[in-house]
User: What shape does this take?
Amino acid sequence: MTATLEKPPVTEAPVKEPRDWRGPALFAVVAIIGLVVMPLVLEPFRLGLLAKYLTYAIVALGIGLAWGQGGMLTLGQGVFFGLGGYAMGMHLKLNDAGDGLPDFMVWSGVETLPALWEPFRNPVFAIAMVVIVPGAVAWLLGTLVFRQRVRGAYFAILTQALAAAMVILLVGQQGLTGGTNGLTNFFEVFGQDVAADSTQRGLYFTVAIVLGILFIAVWQLQRSRFGRLLLAVRDGEDRVRFLGYNPATVKTITFTLSAVMAGIAGALFVPIVGIISPALLGVVPSLELVVAVAVGGRFVLVGAVLGAVLMGYAKTYFSEELPDAWLYLQGALFILVIGLAPKGIVGIISSVRESVAGRKKEVAA
Amino acid sequence: MTALLEVRDVSVVFDGFRALDGVNFTVDHGELRFLIGPNGAGKTTLIDIITGLTKPTTGTVSFDGTVVNGKREHQRVRLGIGRTFQTSVVFEELTVLENLDLAASFRKPLVSLLTRRKGVTEKVEQALETTQLTDLASRKAGVLSHGQRQWLEIGMLIAQGPRLLLLDEPVAGMSSEERVRTGDLLTEIAKDHTVIVIEHDMDFLRRYASTVTVLHEGKLLIEGSVDEVRADPRVQEVYLGRAREEAAHDVVG
Assistant: This one.
């Protein structure tokens, strides 16, 4: 459009310029640690754990976008994680079963393959569904809900109810979904032995690269006009209407993106961990990830990712050392963060840095 | 020629209370209209009706010949109706420039919003200049003073490029210097826009107003020039009555 006459940005203060390289530099350092150092240093079991945390980090990135940037507290990301996970799990089960039925169906007396399962034999279809199903569900929910101006706690409760409903649905349809046990006992993933170290290593690289790509994509989105608009919707939805935008559209798009990310994470989770079941996508795991994002720092994307990885490690560590203490610790941490440091770990780090910088200035002056 | 804005027979009832009662209100192209009246007269309600924030119980609102009753707020903005609020709402986390840029970009297709803002568009620069906020462009809106926020809101309205601007008490809470600057800003904008301003500061009216519409208890009391309105005994009664009440309130308080 000709309306965007490009002029030299005289009015933009050049003060921000020196900070520009820091983001990419930090990203590069983390990428080297993630793609080179970790695979060399960690034994396969620990690398697998890290891969699992990175799938959580992808979900967290979506929560950071929807909640931190868009103000939509979504307590049901497990639903989308599960939809992606089950789509992948169905494909793996069919692949393992060959011409027969998946094992759990035989156990529950199902004799012919349900029509819903059939197309998941095709890996391309299954991968497409990993993205399409969570996206479509979120789009539908967003369209219905945001137009009616449902927001805040009401939206949060609604998403949580969705997570609860999803669990009931999955458990109830044993023959179709594997019930409480979910889908497990996978042997092969895209022609590779799923238990082999080399396969797991490959999966680790896959999840790390996917996380990196999604992180850059969300980062770009955040800096775009759409990202600015999203912040505006978060801080003053009613005012945004009088700027000529429909906040419902902005929120629906954002919520859908976050759901798609959770779906992708779920699909990656399945071959890495070897199971997808209702217990992994219900209310509790959905909440745990929101807590992780809050602890890491929900207003910054790095915070969401950091929170998910740290909380993943903390959970494993404490479950190994002090199994009873973890739940209390997690709850206490959430209360502490919300009460004392609403910007999370990232917020604490940046305020420390600011006060150090301030002191330096004082000394210089 | 049809008028730019025509409000026909509009009534609004909130829980049995008639906020507006059969109001007819017409504004022509290029007019600068002042809307006055004591507290509770229905001024803001009338603006809310025009911009779609409140639905009228009866009556119609037409903008440039089309009835806009069923349209939502953002759709009316797209038709060219822009407004500011009594208590200014700017996006504190965004810079002054980003606030203006967002206001200027709503006509762009959503996909094109996925790119980053490059430089400053002509419209935004104009808005910066008109409101004299150029020096503050890269500051976050959260650090602005009350007056600067009001100007930013007016700037956002200019950047929107509406055909009808509705300003709800733009000088409320401003110092006398700021009032003068806002008044000048208004006359500047009114040169090439149709503007409706809610204001009940009489000094301000005398300086800047041409046509004044007086609302009282949800009804249109009188419409005319500043002098006509000031001379009208009903207006004096309404305002003197209010002054008396306020004096009584002060004594009690």
